[in-house]
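Example with several molecule types.
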Amino acid sequence: MKRHSRQGGGIERQKARWGWGFVLPALVFFGLFSFYPIFNALYMSFFKKNLLSLAPPQFIGIGNYAFLFRSPEFWNSLKASAIFTACTFSLLVGVSLLLAVFIVSRKHIQKLMQMAFFSPAVVSSVVAASVWLLIFDPRGLGNQVVNAILQTPGVDHRWLASATMLRLSTVLVYFWKYVGYFTIIYIAGLSSIPRTLHEAARIDGASSWQDFWYVTFPLLKPTTLLVSVVSMIQCLRTFSTQYVFTQAGAPRGPIDVITLSIYNTAIRDHQIGRASALSIILFGIMLLLSWGQFRISRSEDVSYL
Amino acid sequence: MSVISRSSLQNPGSGGRLPVAPRSHLTTVVIWAVLGGMALYVLAPLVFMLTASFMPAKDVMRMPYPWIPRGLHWQNFWQAIRGNDGSFVYVRNILNSIIVATAITVSTVLLATLTGYGLAKFPFKGSKAVLLFIVATMMVPFQAVMIPLYMIVTNMGLQDSYGGLILPFLVNAFGVFLMRQYLLTFPDEMLDAARIDGAGELQIFWRVIVPNSWPAMATLAILTFRSQWDNLIWPLLVVQREEMKTIPLYITRFASEKYTDEGAMMAAAVIASFPMIVLFIALAKYFVGGAKLFAARKG
Amino acid sequence: MGRLRLGCLCVLGLVVALAVPTFGVELVFWTHEDPNRTAIEEQYIAEFESMYPDVTIRRVTYPSAEIAQVILTAFAARRGPDIFNMETEDEYPYIVNRRVAPVDPAAAGYADLQAIYDDYLAGTLDAVTADGKLYGLPLELTNWCIYLNKKYFREVGLDPETDYPKTWEEMVSVSEKLAIRDGEILQRRGFDFRYPYYLVSLLPMVEQLGGSFLSEDGKTAIINDAAWLEVLTYMQEWGPNGNNLGSPTYTNARKLFNKDNNDVAMCLSGLYQIGRIRADNQEFYDSGEWMVVPFPVFEDAVNDYRCNYYGHYYMVNAESSSENQEWAWKFIAFMLSHSEEYLVECGLVQPKNSLLASEAYLSFPYSDVFATDMAKSKMVMLHEANPRFDELLKEAVESVMLTGLTPQQALDTLRRKANEILQEG
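Resulting structure tokens for the full complex:
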């Protein structure tokens, strides 16, 4: 890679070397503990193998993929994942930004509010799942609260029974779990915008809205991209909520997200080849969506100078 | 309302008045209503957990739920710590969780900041591809990599040890991504100034980047700690001796079908949440104080 | 100076101790957690180790909801334990794939294989028999009967001793009397099914009416539509779209039964529930306000089948060394020889003839009810595709109870999908 100016070339190359230097330790680690298992899964997806069988795996080329694309269950999983992700993702990104802005605007209760919204994270997932199951029990809080608000005593809203309500229930639980995460990420992003900038805007007579839109939001772009990509991946990766609900007796169809399907294919049906193929498909979807998001927010190099 | 001009942004010191933006009552009401409603939604299950930890199991499952416990049923906590077999192994489990989560958090924050810095401030060919590669590792569900990972760790002989619990999680993709995004907005002229002063790259990292990135590092620390604290599947596969088990395994044991005592389970969960709360309070000042640090340093 | 010398000696001693090669056998034993059983089995380990000083046994427990996954992962990585146990349906694929070793009668202390079969109740070893070899020894066999709360019966004017439901039709009328509702919401249910376990409790209902899941030759699924339709219609009328007597979405009945909180009057459970009542709610246990009655039968039943039984069998890893396998069977037989202790301390019934005739068993509360029912029932159906069949049954029942499909539609889907699975082979 020859550079045109010799002086520029030296600095550029030195920077590149340092760049690689900083990145190398993590890459080595990822190589062993992340890339290798992933390539293993990719390799496995072209074979038919029963987890318990001692027979060698049978090469079937794209057989697993063909089976999946022809299977109505697979398309159902895709639909379930899509619905869940669309709802939860929009809620997560939108509401956590809103909350972060509100919290930052009220300095004196900031610590308390942060703690409050982050608190679902201090509860173990196992316990949280059992608590939410009790809430969604027909006799539980879910019905009690909604009936009190809507003044409809004795109505069972079928939290875990009807397809729509069941999907809503999973969204409610997942959103509850993760809204705090993304709120504090946004708060960190907001806090890195120096107050002097906001002060300057105010001095120039900007309203809160204009301050937000012209100062905060552009500088928040890297954080927003982070939140958007990560929350979308998280939503597509959802597993334990759906798993716990189906174990407790809820119908599987409406919430049979792809990760649940992968788990069942591997652990229940012992078909590791097909499960790997499903994982690769999910991986492909996430890659595509993330790449799309990177493209949309092309102007990443935002700094206030 | 005057339009904000780029020039006034670039001359922050202009003007002498103190900025006061009027806030309408409606905005305040809306803000409080939203915050309040969300807070209730978010806190209700926790209040349930806390109050349930003080009730005997009979009352926990009662419908409608009696929010106020009839008395402080401390036996739940005693039972939780003592364990169903009277071995107090929970104390050791808590210690294990603390050791593992802390080790992983420290190494993750360090490595992620290092890597994120490399990706953010050193434009080398292929850095975008490296970032995408790393982010891509977040995209594979754990079930798909579980078995190969298990084989790697057992082949290294690390099962049933702290090494096996810590090693696969030394750094994670989310951390790298977070730090990279955060460091993108780090002012270049501070780095250049340090270089001109003759500081080496590593010195710049330690003396300039790290002390000034607390908001993101603290955020990453708490999120990483949290994921590890709650990790169930990996310790389940890798740990065999009771003394090496971590908290989620212990709690799952309590919740396991054959011996449910819901009150004690909630008590165990309450105990397990203390370190998280302590950590959060300890780190919270960095979230809040971050802005001040930044502004002070800049000015 | 003295301390330094002492220190050196210690280090030397440690080095020597570590350098000496360890002889002897180490057995790794994985099982699900159960505090009572852990207590007695740790004792047996100590006794066995003192009888055979060269043998060490490492016992590891896992939560029962997760153990199948852990063992599967370990076996997939070819690092499975020497001894393990899981529910019969989960153990079956291990037999099919030849991952477990056959019982060694001599090591287990029997004259020959037939002696083992003679020791156990007829038919209870069929689940682990394949190709003329035996692959496991039973830790427990369980079937379910109806537990009922006497207080609630009397409250609604029923005499628990005589008015308990003997047929499924009576179950509907009795539950209706016991149910307390607030609008659509059932505050107290009379009875409710044990929902996800359809292979165990729903299939017998179909078989009572003359239907079955698989044909004799195992090639076709869903035999006798009329029987299936009757059962699916029954479930539809049980649920929220019918008489609203129960639903899979309520907290399961056996969890609530012990609390005696006016949540549910009856539940379906095994002998072990008795121990749990005592552990969960000593008052309720002592008050005697509960009893056990047999599994109901349809009025127009053609077969008197009761609830299927399932169990846990101790098995040995086929990839363990032959020496380990021998010691494993020896140890398993040693543990299982204490069948009375397993019953009294843990509520686990081994189907050994000697136990079923013993004083301990006969005097155990309601053992006669369970035993009579077990004599009229069969082992739960075992097939490699069992988990998927279970899912299909779940889907069928839920679609008629919750989604509003007609029994005919649900049956057609069930039949189609089950046969597809059979064709996949």
